[in-house]
Amino acid sequence: MSAHTRARRTDALNKAVVTVSSSPSAKRSTFRVPRAALNRVLEFLHEITTSDGTVSADDVFRDLDEKYGKSGAVLKGARLRLELTQKNLAEKTGIEQADLSKMENGKISIGRERAKRIAKVLNVDYRILL
User: Fold this and answer.
1) Quick one: pLDDT at residue 9?
2) Is the domain of 73 the same as that of 111?
3) Which residues 6+ apart lie within 8 Å of 38 measured at CB?
4) Which end of the chain has the least Cβ crowding within 10 Å, N or C?
5) pLDDT tens across 59-98, in order?
6) What's the gap between Cα 101 and its chain centre?
């Protein structure tokens, strides 16, 4: 999988926005990063960009996958995309906040039933959380 990446600086909350999509016309995912880290993020993306201008999503998220496990990184990313705290997600799913933290950090598996409850709130296919 490859990703097209674009970044722009914002003044709001001293954050920058990095937009990633599978192609220029595909739906985009937006990540907010501290402005102070934007140059490091862009340098990293530049280092892994291929000659056709794309970036492998596996390369972009390798560190997160190694640190949290793929399902944990997806869970955290989907939660943050909706600007939900773990506490908010816990209230909406009936899953303990401590368990959500453990899932995001790869300490416990999400499981099919919890994945379905979480996916409904996050508006994603539950299978990406498994």
Assistant:
1) 47
2) yes
3) 7, 9, 16, 18
4) N
5) 666 776 676 677 888 898 888 888 899 999 999 999 999 9
6) 15
CA–CA separation, 79 vs 45, rounded Å?
A: 23
Residue 16: beta bridge partners? 9, 33
Which of 65, 85, 106 is a domain's end point?
A: 65
Asked if residue 55 lies in contact with residue 22, where contact means CB atoms within 8 angstroms, the answer is: no
Instruction: Please check whether residue 64 is in contact with residue 80, taking contact to mean a CB–CB distance below 8 angstroms.
Output: no
Residue with tokens 């996050």: 122
Task: Give the three-class secondary structure for 19.
Answer: strand
- Please indicate, yes or no, whether residues 51 and 78 belong to a single structural domain of this protein: no
Let me know: does 92 contact 102? Beta carbons within 8 Å.
Answer: no
